[in-house]
Q: What sequence folds into this?
């Protein structure tokens, strides 16, 4: 159920190049649009027709019939694709397509995986090593049936699945509109959306897709790029702090129901709250490889700037030879943490209204928990800050974080001026505590599931995560029976 994504920071950045271009797309177009999905790249492929009637067709429209159960092998030799099977298929220097003919259920199999729609074999001769792209051309609704369960998980509440269906439909149709000159629209991996074709289809997933058929999120009549991620850790991030572009529907919102991840299992709980330990040797070597600077042995990390939502933006690596300031991308490359939401307390829903009756502890530089009473004043970037009055959770006085479990507190997270934090190495290791999984932009999938469990509809979920309250009626679900956000 954990979305394995954008958590790989470099990969994510690649998926959002051109993130903020908008395209008009009517509901009618949405219903009729096919998606071109990159399945794989290789020099050869085995294809089996599972059901329905197909034919091989080249760019000159020379065709060869391919019926049920037939098996074909495609090979790229030089600049030519050769397909062998029960009948002779003329060799092609361009695209070869296995296309569905007539009515009925059309399914083919590529390297053991089943898909609906058509298959294109495209020679990629502009690469340093020529290869062949395998592209599934499939109706958008059939595509979503192979996506939604892979992205959110099959046991998610129905309303959360419907929210995922609308978000995924909006995301892919946005990509289709902006990639018309490309060979394909999306990949079948976390670089776009995870797509597994027929094997991912389940009754509850098909129902979520059908019940929202044709519905897309629009702002000012334009389909939005409805980004999503696994778990926001309590608060989503604004796109401007990840990719520098400020987008009205991708701004930070509270996400308290992210804690739903802790309900299911210890494994899923790691999407919400985690620790990561690195040896100083590992950290020093990685810092040298990423920055090109020899800092000696890294003994501490100072968080010098966080976003208003609380994610790390800048930090200092303190080494035995020198100190180096690094930005967000280098932080992600060096530490490779599930998110950049570092230093939150053990119960990140209880920051802003801690009382003197709550029990807190401070983790000192040797890793020892020292009990303290609140309110307590710590030194922040802008001067003394009283914890319990402002929700401050990280500071610079030789401590890594404030940890506690004050019951009954507000669900707000700390905002405002960034606070300094120093995380010291202890016993040769440096341990980072954090929350959330992924880039944090757009809809939190675990948050959506938590909202659904609390009785919210998919309309409520989408309205919340894509800033419906602040867009003054500009955000719509186009294609819905009625507009819910007037």
A:
């Amino acid at each position: 159920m954990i979305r394995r994504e954008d958590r790989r920071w470099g990969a994510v950045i690649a998926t959002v190049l051109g993130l903020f271009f908008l395209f008009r797309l009517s509901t009618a177009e949405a219903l009729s649009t096919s998606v071109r999905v990159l399945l794989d790249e290789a020099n050869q492929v085995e294809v089996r027709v599972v059901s329905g009637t197909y034919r091989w067709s080249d760019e000159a429209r020379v065709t060869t019939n391919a019926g049920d159960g037939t098996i074909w092998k495609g090979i790229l030799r030089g600049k030519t694709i050769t397909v062998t099977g029960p009948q002779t298929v003329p060799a092609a220097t361009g695209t070869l397509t296995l296309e569905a003919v007539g009515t009925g259920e059309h399914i083919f199999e590529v390297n053991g995986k089943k898909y609906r729609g058509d298959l294109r074999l495209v020679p990629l001769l502009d690469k340093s090593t020529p290869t062949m792209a395998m592209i599934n051309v499939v109706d958008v609704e059939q595509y979503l049936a192979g996506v939604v369960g892979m992205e959110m998980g099959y046991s998610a509440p129905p309303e959360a699945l419907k929210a995922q269906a609308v978000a995924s439909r909006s995301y892919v149709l946005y990509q289709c509109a902006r990639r018309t000159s490309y060979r394909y629209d999306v990949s079948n991996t976390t670089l776009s959306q995870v797509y597994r074709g027929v094997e991912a289809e389940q009754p509850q997933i098909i129902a979520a897709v059908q019940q929202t058929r044709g519905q897309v999120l629009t702002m000012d009549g334009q389909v939005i790029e409805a980004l999503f991620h696994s778990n926001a850790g309590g608060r989503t991030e604004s796109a401007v702090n990840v990719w520098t572009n400020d987008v009205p529907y991708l701004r930070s919102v509270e996400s308290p129901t992210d804690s739903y991840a802790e309900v299911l299992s210890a494994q899923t709980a790691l999407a919400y709250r985690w620790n990561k330990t690195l040896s100083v040797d590992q950290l020093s070597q990685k810092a040298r490889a990423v920055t090109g600077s020899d800092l000696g042995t890294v003994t501490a990390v100072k968080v010098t700037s966080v976003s208003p939502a609380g994610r790390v933006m800048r930090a200092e690596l303190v080494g035995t030879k020198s100190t180096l300031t690094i930005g967000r991308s280098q932080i992600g490359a060096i530490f490779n943490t599930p998110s950049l939401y570092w230093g939150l307390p053990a119960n990140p829903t209880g920051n802003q209204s801690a009382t003197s009756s709550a029990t807190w502890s401070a983790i000192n530089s040797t890793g020892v928990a020292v009990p303290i009473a609140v309110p307590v004043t710590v030194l922040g970037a802008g001067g003394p800050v009283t914890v319990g009055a402002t929700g401050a959770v990280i500071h610079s006085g030789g401590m890594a974080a404030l940890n506690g479990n004050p019951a009954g507190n507000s669900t707000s997270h700390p905002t405002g001026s960034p606070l300094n934090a120093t995380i010291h190495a202890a016993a040769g290791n440096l341990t980072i505590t954090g929350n959330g999984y992924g880039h944090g932009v757009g809809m939190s999938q675990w948050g959506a599931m938590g909202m659904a469990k609390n009785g919210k509809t998919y309309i409520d979920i989408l309205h919340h995560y894509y800033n419906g309250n602040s867009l003054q009626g500009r955000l719509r679900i186009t294609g819905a029976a009625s507009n819910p956000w007037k």
